[in-house]
Amino acid sequence: MAQISVALPPTPAVPVRDQFKPIKVGFLLAMHLGVIAVFWQTTWAAIGVCILLHALCGGLGICVGYHRLLTHRSFKCPKAVEYTLAFLGALTLEGGPIDWVAHHRQHHQYSDEPGDPHSARDGFFWSHVLWMFWTPNDKDFDELTERYVPDLLRQPFYRFLGRYYLEISIALAVVLYLLGGWPFVVWGMCVRLVITYHSTWLVNSASHKFGYRNFDVSDLSTNCWWVALVTYGEGWHNNHHAFPTSARHGLRAWEFDLAYGFIRLLKSVGLAWDVRMPPAEKLKFDTPRAA
Q1: Which of 146, 193, 211, 253 stands the most exposed, by the fewest C-beta atoms within 10 Å?
Q2: What gap in Å lies between CA 15 and CA 109, rounded to an integer?
Q3: 230-264 tens-digit pLDDT
Q4: Which helix (H) or strand (E) segment is 259 a member of?
Q5: Contact, 238 vs 211, CB < 8 A?
Q6: How far apart are CA 180 and CA 228, in angstroms?
Q7: Three-state secondary structure string covering 112-154
Q8: Which helix (H) or strand (E) holds 20?
Q9: What angle do CA 32, 33, 34 make, to 5 degrees?
Q10: Number of helices (H) and strands (E), helices first, in the chain?
Q11: DSSP secondary structure code for residue 206 in this structure
């Protein structure tokens, strides 16, 4: 009998990261070198500014705003709250929300497979930082954003943040200098940004290598407690990959999730609703398994 073949729709082409960006290398080197200035530009007030801005911009801006809200829509909130969280995220200099969310949605579609922009199968340092130094060309990047973030492209505010996030951070640096001189700039910008960068990157690298797994998923994602500690709960990454749209990442009693605590706080005062959670019937834990 003749074999019948069924034509399947073609898989969308994955944008090739074919452009090396030395300017990104230079910028990251400058930020890391700027940290050296802490040896002569340190005050307790400057350290406090660093901690506060890290919590606001890294914790609320990236973990809650860019990731759980804009990327996965794990809860709803007023536009004023959404835009505030996105603005704080832009102050981390990790890019505007459009390109950040596009890369992360692409990561979830092809997690640790060809097409993942920072696949852990390509090595720890590639998934940690090196992937950022190669970017798609302009045509492929436009196709990437049109495919993954049409919802954000329609909103002028997100296009504004994507275009002017660098200028906004420069304005913040000027304000910090006026308030506390170079110690505020060194700690509020260089130290804070470097800590935020490596915290974010560890989710892509360490949380795909170290830790344990609650759920059998097809990628390498793990739950890594020390990454969760420095990322407000983002290190419970195996849980997240099992239930990407869940606002809660820490699912076991010991899996502390500060970002989810903030979302619960918003909900308690009426500023968040439709907070998404994993289906109760699917939360059947086995003994945690090492990665």
Answers
A1: 253
A2: 13
A3: 999 999 999 999 999 999 999 999 999 999 999 99
A4: helix 258-268
A5: yes
A6: 31
A7: CCCCCCCCHHHCHHHHHCHHHHEECCHHHHHHHHHHHCHHHHC
A8: strand 19-20
A9: 90
A10: 12, 4
A11: G
